[in-house]
Amino acid sequence: MGYVMKIFKNLSKKALKFCIIAAIISSNKLLPMRMRNIDLRLNKKPANISVYDWSKQKAQELVNEKRHAILALLGRTDNGWEETKENLEPIYKKSADHYEKKYKKQILPPSSHGLIMSIIKHPMIQKELGITSISIKENIIIAERAYAYPIKFLCEDPDEPIDSPEASDGYNIIISPQMAFSGKYSDEELEAFIGHELAHIKYKHIPEIYCFTNLYREKLSRNETNVNQDTFDEALHAYNRAIEIQADIVGTFNNWIWLETVENYWQNQTEIINSRNMDPHSYELDIDHPPVAVRANYFNNMFSEIKRESEPKTILPRPNKHRPNKIKPIPVKNTPKTNNSKISKLTENITQENNDRSTVTNKKPTNKKNETKNLDNNQEQNNAPGELLQNLINNITTKQAFTVIGFFIAAYIIFK
């Protein structure tokens, strides 16, 4: 140990700096510095599940996590929460029914029926929502569901216009014909918007938010909680981001245009909010207008992964560095005789060479290591200098490359 310390004392500062830099780089501690995806880490996806199903699974885990955090603030546990929701849901449903009467005054244009029908007849949507039948009564499209309230497609109330092509009250889809069918949005974009709101209905997101806020207000009125409004709103905001992610995933059903649409849409919402001088951290804003910036990184990763998965894969054989690949002889077709003797001679040589190679490869080698070494040496002798350099560049690993670069940088620092 003392001998080692003497060596370090005799080293100059520059040499010591060189050793430290080289050690850091060669240990590869700094690589790779990849940014983590928010909440849903797609680089951890198992191979035996599709991106769509896996994203749905991870989104559900995220929603469960944020729900659990709110219940903890309310002094509740997951046990019995479903029963509490069922008891509170009729109160919220009455409120939704009251607004439904106002929406029924307006009728959606018949031209919109075709698009809506094509969406709710989509096999994935029918499966996700448990739709059993679809009917049109008084120009209102109604999707009946097993063991759940039917979904109605209603027109917005002109006295209370919505700021988007569509919205949901938790049970019905409210559509703004002025926005939805103005030509501003394509059919694909409208499909994604409506799919998003249908997902909110499927998972009962909006009634659950009502249950959270109702319980919190009751506790406040009875002085049964020490949780202040800001803390509760922050937890509710986190839950809302999670349910928006969940609705975005289910609402896409492999719709590539949705990413661009949702970013533009939330940007428009931000402009509307700014024009109204609303507080960007207000309780209402957190519920109704979650910022797209929180989801942008997730979307980029999700859609690139889905596209990559859906593209046809061409698997190329990997070259084996330790053993030469068997080269199958090229079959020579019976072609008519030609006057060009060079071509026929070349074909004969190629066939003979391939036959020789296949014969050599099929033989059992007496010493695999020696034979491989000889073959590698012969291959190196036959390669031109340019090819050797190209092979070296192709086979170098990331760690080796950064180590070499690090040594060059360190040498420059020492000897400049």
The largest sheet is:
5 strands, mixed
Using the alpha-carbon principal axes, give the shape: globular
Helices and strands, in N-to-C order?
HHHHHHEEEEEHHHHHHHHHHH
**Unreliable segments of 5+ consecutive residues:** 1-9, 14-43, 256-263, 280-300, 313-347, 357-385
Distance between the termini: 33 Å
How many domain modules?
Answer: 3
* Category by helix and strand content: alpha+beta
Mean pLDDT: 66
β-strand percent reads: 5-15%
Rg value: 33 Å
Spatially, the strands of the biggest sheet line up as 1-2-3-5-4
Total helical elements: 17
As a percent range, the share of helical residues equals 55-70%
Number of strands: 5
SSE layout and pairings?
Blueprint: H1 2-10, H2 13-26, H3 51-73, H4 81-103, H5 113-120, H6 123-129, E1 131-137, E2 140-145, E3 148-155, E4 166-168, E5 173-175, H7 177-180, H8 187-202, H9 205-221, H10 229-252, H11 258-275, H12 283-288, H13 293-310, H14 341-362, H15 368-382, H16 385-395, H17 398-415
Based on the model shown, name its key terms.
single chain, about 425 residues, alpha+beta, 5 strands, globular
Tell me about this structure.
- By secondary structure, the protein is α+β, with helices and mostly antiparallel strands.
- It has 3 domains: 49-310, no CATH class; 323-382, no CATH class; 383-416.
- The chain has 17 helices and 5 strands.
- A 5-stranded mixed beta sheet has the order 1-2-3-5-4.
- β1 (131-137) and β2 (140-145) form a beta hairpin.
- α2 (13-26) runs antiparallel to α17, α3 (51-73) packs antiparallel against α10 and α9 (205-221) runs antiparallel to α10.
- It is globular and about 85 Å long.
- The protein starts with a helix and ends with a helix.
